[in-house]
From TrEMBL, chain A:
This is ABC transporter permease subunit. The keyword Cytoplasm does not apply. Belongs to the binding-protein-dependent transport system permease family. Coiled coil: none annotated. The lineage of its organism: Bacteria, Pseudomonadati, Pseudomonadota, Alphaproteobacteria, Rhodobacterales. Residues 94-283 form the ABC transmembrane type-1 domain. It comes from Marivivens donghaensis. InterPro entries: BP-dependent_transpt_permease, MetI-like, MetI-like_sf, OppC_N.
TrEMBL record, chain B:
This is ABC transporter permease subunit. Its main location: membrane. The keyword Ribonucleoprotein does not apply. Keywords: Cell membrane, Membrane, Transmembrane, Transmembrane helix, Transport. It is found in: Cell membrane. It is a multi-pass membrane protein. Residues 96-325 form the ABC transmembrane type-1 domain. It comes from Marivivens donghaensis. Pfam families: BPD_transp_1, BPD_transp_1_N. The lineage of its organism: Bacteria, Pseudomonadati, Pseudomonadota, Alphaproteobacteria, Rhodobacterales. Signal peptide: none annotated. Belongs to the binding-protein-dependent transport system permease family. The chain crosses the membrane at residues 9-30, 100-123, 135-156, 198-218, 256-282, 302-328.
């Protein structure tokens, strides 16, 4: 703070400027805290979970949560139809959800950015071919395509992640290409080219860093899409397989007990909702902070 | 305008061939031999196997198979289901009205609530109502709808006993499925109670399927309205002394509707993806449930044909939205 006061004309660092705008959006900050909390839970899950997520307490089948009648603090959120502790399973489930989000976003964004860069710099015919292929993928409803892909690859969490990444990829391609095309016309790119920058340098060092803002926002938003879709696939029996405590799979296992034991259905869904909501809040804040056109509007 | 239309149609053709190629490729890449799957647990003799392989053309070169498939598709022949032995085309269009009825109701629900909510939020920008509404919209947007469905079932079907858990109509009612639209058929049947039964079966699936479009429409309407409300002609209208309600409804909303309509059109894909989950949970006999069941039964021709028809439907709707957008907004055509 004193630093900036002394040398007033100095531009604040990019990170600080970002934080300044991000902080203005209260929802985004709350989202960030919640996201941080879940990250912590996921990281520390073996330490903080009271029991092993697959351990079955045969004497405590479908025990309600601690605060309702018949519950006990030994199982704060109750137990599932096999007598497993709900809290431990939810905590462990956080790991799977974050794993899914990170892997899917990494694969989809990495592939999408490269293909988008190529399309943006390629001759017209190649660009057209790439974009037509992306149109074809986008013509299928994403969940349906992922479902069929998983059916081909065999139902498992890994295959579900691959399928979701493939389905999400075209969005990155389109976004990157659009950003590249608008950046490419600017003077700084021309001057870099005149100065003798090679094609690789132009693509990755000159243009790409200036295209990142919308891509980062997209990454945040597709993180939540990935978690939702993976849970949906798990729910349909095409994602993580039991006894994996993935939240969607837990819901699928609990389906037949919905009218008898509300807690086995409610808690995994609340976990998904809160996580996705937190990420979407963060994504909105990121967009406001990173997109100069919307700044202070 | 004609040139614009032609250019849009021209991009449709390669995409259509590509979509056909993808759905064609799936059956050839799927693990397991489709003919062995067809034989089931009894197995089959070698001669029968060879006979069926020839019958389905699996022994011919890939390219020839694709050509046959493509020409078949263009004539409305998508093969026959392994399980029911009925043509995939017929099955699709018998079940489609159920999905269409549900999707239409969901869309109407989403528009009826989402549009006014967005307008009211924009007019009251920054006030409590706006913030409450937009927070709710974000929750709806983040909702895992398969869980939302289970919650609604617990409350409204389990505890309150207001709505049935699954299906399209009570078992005691029986009438011919003339149009496939249950509400229409129920009215036409003239049986007392049939209509109310059909409507009560529709309520929960409609809410579940409409939730995400509702959130999207509310958010989009609000931001479009905010943009329009900042324009000069709105200030002019206000300065002329027009009532705020008239300005909002006639001047602002009409122009704000353009992006909103686009969003509505483009959410057809989302709606169909949502229908997969909604129909599975509520045992709604539509396209979504049919696809999921077929995937589990490894009924390859159905998976392949259904995938193709759904993709083509999404493409046609998107194309229509594109063209309509071009008609409404001449600036788009010039690009």
């Amino acid at each position: 703070m004193t630093d900036t006061a002394q040398s007033a004309p100095k531009r604040p660092s990019a990170l600080r400027e970002f934080w300044y705008y991000f902080r203005e959006n209260r929802g985004a900050v709350i989202g960030l805290y919640v996201f941080g909390f879940f990250l912590l839970v996921a990281a520390l899950s073996p330490i903080i979970a009271p029991y092993d997520s697959t351990q079955q307490f045969r004497d405590h089948i479908l025990q309600p949560p601690a605060w309702s009648e018949g519950g006990s603090w030994a199982f704060p959120l109750g137990t599932d139809p096999l007598g497993r502790d709900m809290l431990s399973r939810l905590i462990e489930g956080a790991r799977y959800s974050f794993f899914v989000g990170v892997v899917v976003v990494t694969i989809a964004s990495f592939g999408g950015i490269i293909i988008g860069l190529i399309a943006g710099f390629a001759p017209r015919w190649l660009d057209t071919i790439i974009m037509r292929i992306m149109d074809i993928v986008l013509a299928f409803p994403s969940l349906l395509l992922a479902l069929v892909l998983v059916a081909i690859l065999g139902p498992s969490l890994i295959n579900a992640m691959v399928a979701i990444a493939i389905v999400l990829q075209p969005h990155y391609v389109r976004l990157t290409r659009a950003a590249v095309l608008s950046e490419k016309q600017k003077d700084y790119v021309t001057s870099a080219r005149v100065a003798g920058a090679g094609r690789m340098r132009l693509m990755f060092k000159t243009v790409l860093p200036n295209c990142l803002a919308p891509i980062i926002v997209q990454a945040a938003l597709s993180f939540s899409t990935a978690i939702l879709d993976a849970a949906a696939l798990g729910f349909l029996g095409m994602g993580a397989q039991p006894p994996t405590p993935e939240w969607g799979t837990m819901l699928a296992e609990a389906r037949e007990f919905i009218l008898r034991a509300w807690w086995v259905v409610t808690f995994p869904g609340v976990a998904i909702l809160i996580t996705v909501l937190a990420i979407n809040l963060m994504g909105d804040g990121l967009r406001d902070a990173l997109d100069p056109k919307l700044k202070r509007s | 305008m004609l040139k614009y239309l032609a250019s849009r149609l021209l991009t449709f053709v390669p995409t259509f061939i590509g979509v056909t190629l993808i759905s064609f490729a799936f059956i050839r890449v799927l693990p397991g031999d489709p003919i062995i799957v067809m034989a089931g647990e009894r197995g089959m003799s070698e001669e029968r196997y060879a006979e069926l392989t020839t019958q389905y053309g699996f022994d011919r070169p890939m390219l020839a198979q694709f050509w046959d498939y493509l020409t078949g598709v263009l004539q409305g022949d998508l093969g026959t289901s392994f399980v029911t032995k009925k043509p995939v085309w017929d099955e699709f269009f018998t079940l489609f009205p159920a999905t269409l009825e549900l999707s239409l109701c969901a869309m109407i629900f989403a528009i009826l609530i989402g549009l006014p909510a967005g307008v009211i939020a924009a007019v009251n920008r920054g006030k409590f109502f706006d913030r409450a509404l937009m927070s709710t919209a974000l929750v709806g947007y983040s909702m895992p709808i398969f869980w939302w469905a289970l919650l609604l079932i617990i409350v409204f079907s389990g505890n309150l006993q207001w709505t049935p858990v699954s299906g399209r109509i009570g078992l005691q009612y029986y009438f011919p499925n003339a149009t496939g639209f249950m509400i229409w058929d129920a009215i036409a049947s003239g049986q007392s109670g049939a209509l109310s039964s059909a409507v009560r079966h529709l309520i929960l699936p409609t809410i579940v399927l409409g939730t995400i479009p509702l959130a999207v429409i509310a958010r989009q309407t609000r931001s479009a309205m905010l943009e329009v409300l900042g324009e000069d002609y709105i200030r002019t209208a206000r300065a002329k002394g027009m009532s705020p309600r008239r300005v909002n409804a006639i001047h602002a909303l009409r122009n704000a509707l353009i992006p909103v309509i686009t969003v509505i059109g483009l959410s057809v894909g989302t709606l169909l993806a949502g229908a997969i989950l909604t129909e599975t949970i509520f045992s709604w006999p539509g396209i979504g449930k049919w696809m999921v069941d077929s995937i589990f039964r490894r009924d390859y021709p159905v998976v392949q044909g259904g995938l193709l028809l759904i993709a083509v439907m999404v493409m046609v709707v998107n194309l229509t939205v594109d063209v309509l957008y071009g008609i409404i907004n001449p600036k788009i055509r010039k690009r």
